[in-house]
Amino acid sequence: MANRVTKYYIKQITRRFATSIQLPQSDFVPKFYSGPSIQKTDAIKSINIPPAVYDLYKKPLILHQGHMQWLFDHEGRRYLDLFGGIVTVSVGHCHPKVSSALHEQIDTLWHVTNIYRHPKLYEYVEKLVSKFPGDLKVVYLVNSGTEANDLAIILAKAYTGNNDVISLQSGYHGCSSGLMGLTSTQAFRQPMITPAGFHNALLPDPYRGIWGGCRDSLSQVPGACSCPGDCESSDKYVHQLSELLGNSVPVDRVAALFVESIQGVNGAVQYPKGYLKKASALIKKYGGVLVADEVQTGFGRTGDSFWGFQNQGITPDIVTLAKGIGNGFPLAAVITTKEIANAHTRASYFNTFGGNPLAAAAAKAVLEVIEEENLQENNKVIGKYFIEQLMQLQKVYPIIGDVRGKGLMLAIELVVPGTKTPLCQEQFANVFETIKDLGILIGRGGRWNNVLRIKPPMCITRQDVDFSISVLEEALKRHKN
After folding, report:
1. What are the φ/ψ torsions at residue 432 (nearest 5 degrees)?
2. Which residue, 102, 187, 291, 303, could crosslink 379 as a Cys pair with Cβ 3.0–4.6 Å?
3. Distance CA 274, CA 177 (A)
4. Exposure class string for 72-99: b at 16+ Cβ within 10 A, else e
5. What are the beta bridge partners of residue 411?
6. What's the rounded Cα separation, in Å, for the pair 236 and 240?
């Protein structure tokens, strides 16, 4: 047994590829995997797992342990995680401070629901609201981004007395029955009648939008404008929003404009500079509130600010949080003003698991780690270096149609060289699989599922970026034809 374990560790520590690319060094040694085999999981999946839950890779892997930016599979291989469990592992897998906080709490108190007072909830809420500007001081703690967004709609409707909600095309806000109309990503919309009162406005996309535009990123679309302030195209996209409001929404019935600060599932799509500020002002004229979905952009990920909406020069009326809030521990939040929260008192409300002692302890530790390890600054510095290297790759490989993003919320869109035609799924899948085989787990998304999404744990280093660029280049080189 000892000899087998030794061979296992040697395999993952001294892993080599068919190229000269090597993983950055790590002294962490994972536990020996003793769970079910791939064949066993195949059998269970075929019978017990919903068919809608699909495998990302042609050759699946079983991930059984994580450490900071690293993941380990059932065969002892180590991977650099560039997707963070869908932008959810914020400060690092099994970060020792977060793990310690959970261990301490798990031996003290697990659950009492938020109808009782327990200290961790109050300690966490006080620390969380200190990160918000203005009157955003009231916190609802729930369990997922979908649940947070659903509650945000209830708050917006209760406060305004209106029913209609506007979101942007290709936005993702959850796929529950109540949010199927808010989400405007075709891949996640079931073929059924969506709830009434949802409208999807034209997406102001600098890369694929009809008026282009310049964005808040080091990387701009080739030939884009370079407006010193707000982008001139933002007025044209806002005009389209006003046309939607004037023609498709009942007069004085707008409850909210619901937007991601940067679209996540759609592949880090940013808007022309100034768009959200102008769109927010317009929606206020129609009696609605602004809801910022910070599920993916929050907690310093964009580098320049703690919340994505701050990069846009706006203060929303309602903010939703999830994913990185608990570093993978199930938790989400809705932050709003006292005035809006007061409108929610017309009926009883509670949340069984929201803000439970374990979740609150983990989330409080996450905020402390972000501060103590200066991770927002790391996002800014490493994110700048990362996007600069991606831009250099784009110059060499015309299959990269667009490089975009901010901080450590980045993406590259793969296209047929010389065009904006999305790379076909077979070619994209080959690139995606090769990246995995070379030691990186990366995300995918976009309307045509042709975008590589880069949203790693916020602790990655310059060496990790260099490795990532080497892997991406090798994968593109192998599949350039």
Report:
1. -60, -45
2. 303
3. 32
4. bbbebbbbbbbbbbebbbbbbbbbebbe
5. 404, 453
6. 7
Q: Compute, in degrees rounded to 10, the torsion defined by CA atoms 216, 221, 226, 231.
A: -60
Give CA–CA dist 221/201, Å, rounded: 22
The per-residue pLDDT string of the chain (481 residues; one tens digit each, 9 = 90 and over) reads 444 444 554 454 444 445 678 999 999 999 999 999 999 999 999 999 999 998 999 999 999 999 999 999 999 999 999 999 999 999 999 999 999 999 999 999 999 988 899 999 999 999 999 999 999 999 999 999 999 999 999 999 999 999 999 999 999 999 999 999 999 998 888 888 888 999 999 999 999 999 999 999 999 999 999 999 999 999 999 999 999 999 999 888 999 999 999 999 999 999 999 999 999 999 999 999 999 999 999 999 999 999 999 999 999 999 999 999 999 999 999 999 999 999 999 999 999 999 999 999 999 999 999 999 999 999 999 999 999 999 999 999 999 999 999 999 999 999 999 999 999 999 999 999 999 999 999 999 999 999 999 999 999 999 999 999 999 999 999 987 6
- The tokens describing 11, both together, are 């395999």
Residue 313: name the closest of 273, 257, 263 by CA.
273
Give the β-pairing of 63-67 and 318-321.
Answer: unpaired
Cα distance between residue 334 and residue 263, in whole Å:
19
Enumerate residues 6+ apart whose C-beta is below 8 A from 2. none
Model pTM? 0.95
**Spatial contact of 168 and 184, defined as CB atoms under 8 Å apart:** yes
For tokens 């389209």, the residue is 240
Sorted by sequence, the CB contacts under 8 Å of residue 466 that are 6+ apart come out as 389
- Best CA proximity match to 370, nearest among 66, 106, 130: 130
In the chain, the largest separation of any two C-alpha atoms, in whole Å, equals 74
